[in-house]
Amino acid sequence: MQMRFLSSIITALTALTLTSCSTTTAEQYEATALTSYSWQVKYANNLTSQPQPRIEIFANTSVLNRNGLKPPEAVVGPDDRGLWWPTLPPRPSVDEVEQRKRLQEEIGKPELVKDVKYKLTYGVGNSQQTLPTNYDVYRQVVKAYPQKTPLELTLGVNDNSVEKAEPVSK
């Protein structure tokens, strides 16, 4: 009984996965990784017990990586993931941090946050589509880009993201 139930759930999930994702072949493409540093400070009436502290963003810097090539404004890298990074933004001063404090709030320590946002732009007929993606797709494009190898792209639910990229075997 349990096995039949489990089997029907797996079948339903497989059908859902197959119907909600599509594939396309791209011969023109560009992958980008926007790397950034931001200083942020948490504020709350009680930093240890408040589940959703207010977060203030101070200075930030970013650099756009394209297809794994070194951006002209990059100063650090490539790191162990092949990404280039901008200069560090200036740390907020005590005065700046205190100016954003509200009555009764405690102030957390300034934290330097690293972030990466990946996107893939590819040709669709006479137009281009840009979708969010992930590190694995970015790396696949970096490897395929120099030879302009066509890629089969697996799109996510409602074609709102690129989940996978694989070289098309000729």
Question: Key terms for this structure?
Answer:
single chain; 170 residues; alpha+beta; 3-stranded antiparallel beta sheet; 3 helices; 8 strands; 21% helix; elongated
Please provide a brief summary of the model:
The chain has 3 helices and 8 strands; from the N terminus they run αβββαβββαββ.
Provide the fold topology:
Blueprint: H1 2-20, E1 23-26, E2 29-44, E3 54-66, H2 94-99, E4 106-107, E5 111-124, E6 127-132, H3 135-144, E7 151-155, E8 162-167
Antiparallel strand pairs: 1-7, 2-3, 2-4, 2-5, 5-6, 7-8
Describe this structure in words.
- Strands 2, 3, 4, 5 and 6 form a 5-stranded antiparallel β-sheet that branches. The protein has a 3-stranded antiparallel β-sheet with strand order 1-7-8.
- The chain has 3 helices and 8 strands, in the order H-E-E-E-H-E-E-E-H-E-E.
- The termini are far apart.
- Strand 7 (151-155) and strand 8 (162-167) form a beta hairpin.
- It is α+β, with helices and mostly antiparallel strands.
- It has helices spanning 2-20, 94-99, 135-144, and strands at residues 23-26, 29-44, 54-66, 106-107, 111-124, 127-132, 151-155, 162-167.
- Residues 12-18 have low confidence and may be disordered.
- It is 21% helix and 39% strand.
Which overall shape is indicated by the principal axes computed on the Cα atoms? elongated
Radius of gyration, CA atoms, in whole angstroms = 22 Å
N-to-C SSE series? Answer: HEEEHEEEHEE
**Alpha-beta classification:** alpha+beta
Q: State the oligomer.
A: single chain
* Fraction of residues in H or I helices: 10-25%
Mean pLDDT: 90
* Main beta sheet strand tally, sense and closure: 5 strands, antiparallel
Tell me the span between the first and last alpha carbons.
46 Å
Low-pLDDT runs: 12-18
Strand content: 35-45%
- Alpha plus pi helix count: 3
- The tally of strands reads 8
